[in-house]
Write a sequence for this structure.
């Protein structure tokens, strides 16, 4: 096929994008208890493995001397870490396929994760009908990414900018909770009702186990984002944060196993708790793989230039922006700025002084000098920059050459 990647850089781009999509789709399959979607995760993982096998072959063929082999080693190391992420995502999907059982509380609680998944059917006469994803600018207008589109019995995963939305399409999306009703409006669907306002009952043992798993999900997704960003910017501080997340994930897995054992007597079907344990183990494996990926950066070793070239060409762009005094972001919170829905950029972390704050919450208030690391669509980076600068010159740091 003409569209198949032909060289190491293209294969690395495909594998990187596929690994992130696999993690998102795997958690979505759990959220929707969708066995068919879980099966599609398996197929995508097999395709990614094919790309990685081809990448390894080309890398070996390119090494004509010991120096070449040493230079290409970092590419193979990162490819191995990407492969581990795909394997872990596949393990999450198998929980649904094996019908191990997932507590209903898990699906309800996943709505409170940092990024939530949703799906909506495009109604007749909806504003989105007949328009391309580029025209709709969903990431910058709603903060939402379309992970897949289902038409009848067929799925289109990771649709491109030229994909036209049609009546009856089912959009599988991910993003901040604030953007859900925005994308539903474009699809001609009624808004979701607000959640119950009454005080939640005391947490049960199972509730605590589920809460820990949600934190593990957030940590694993953040670790992957940090890992790719550390490679893109060759930033040892970001690599160190991946190590912190990996250590935290180990602790969370131990806590979750303890809570699951305590929750067994109150579970209607104790066997359903196996699903929690499997997902926790896979989430921890994703953190481990992210840590592996950052080894070269963490130890100050040189990366092959093709790694950065590949990361610069992926669908999400990375940006480092400094908040300047007097800018629109100065003194305002993430919630007030609505960064995700207004720019499509997702704030991965903020460095304040010598401390990193990862996945800042909506109430987080920016201060002058804060360094924001964000991921999102290419068109969102200038909008984020404009919010953070008080003068006309750019504060987005150029990517290292």
């Amino acid at each position: 096929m003409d569209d198949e990647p032909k060289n190491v850089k293209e294969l690395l781009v495909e594998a990187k994008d596929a690994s992130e999509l696999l993690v998102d789709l795997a958690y979505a399959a759990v959220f929707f208890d969708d066995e068919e979607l879980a099966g599609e995760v398996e197929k995508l993982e097999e395709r990614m493995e094919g790309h990685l096998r081809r990448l390894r072959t080309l890398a070996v063929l390119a090494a004509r001397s010991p120096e070449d082999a040493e230079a290409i080693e970092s590419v193979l190391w990162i490819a191995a870490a990407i492969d581990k992420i795909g394997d872990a995502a596949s393990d999450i999907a198998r929980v649904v396929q094996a019908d191990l059982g997932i507590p209903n509380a898990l699906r309800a609680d996943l709505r409170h994760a940092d990024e939530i998944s949703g799906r909506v059917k495009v109604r007749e006469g909806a504003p989105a009908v007949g328009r391309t994803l580029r025209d709709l600018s969903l990431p910058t207008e709603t903060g939402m990414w379309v992970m897949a589109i289902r038409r009848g019995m067929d799925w289109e995963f990771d649709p491109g900018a030229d994909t036209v939305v049609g009546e009856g399409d089912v959009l599988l999306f991910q993003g901040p909770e604030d953007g859900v009703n925005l994308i539903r409006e474009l699809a001609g669907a009624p808004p979701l009702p607000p959640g119950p306002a009454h005080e939640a009952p005391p947490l049960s043992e199972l509730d605590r186990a589920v809460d820990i798993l949600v934190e593990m999900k957030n940590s694993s997704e953040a670790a992957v984002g940090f890992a790719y960003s550390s490679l893109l910017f060759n930033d040892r501080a970001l690599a160190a944060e991946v190590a912190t997340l990996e250590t935290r994930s180990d602790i969370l897995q131990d806590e979750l196993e303890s809570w699951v054992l305590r929750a067994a007597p109150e579970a209607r079907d104790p066997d359903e708790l196996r699903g929690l344990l499997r997902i926790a183990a896979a989430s921890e494996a994703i953190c481990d793989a992210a840590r592996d990926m950052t080894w070269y950066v963490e130890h100050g070793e040189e990366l092959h230039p093709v790694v950065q070239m590949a990361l610069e060409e992926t669908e999400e762009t990375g940006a480092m922006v400094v908040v300047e005094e007097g800018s629109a972001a100065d003194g305002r919170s993430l919630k007030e700025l609505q960064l995700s829905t207004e720019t499509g950029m997702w704030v991965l972390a903020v460095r304040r002084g010598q401390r990193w704050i990862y996945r800042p919450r909506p109430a987080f208030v920016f201060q002058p000098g804060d360094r924001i690391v964000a991921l999102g669509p290419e068109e969102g980076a200038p909008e984020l920059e404009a919010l953070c600068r008080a003068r006309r010159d750019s504060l987005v740091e150029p990517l290292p050459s």
Q: What stands out?
A: The radius of gyration is 21 Å.
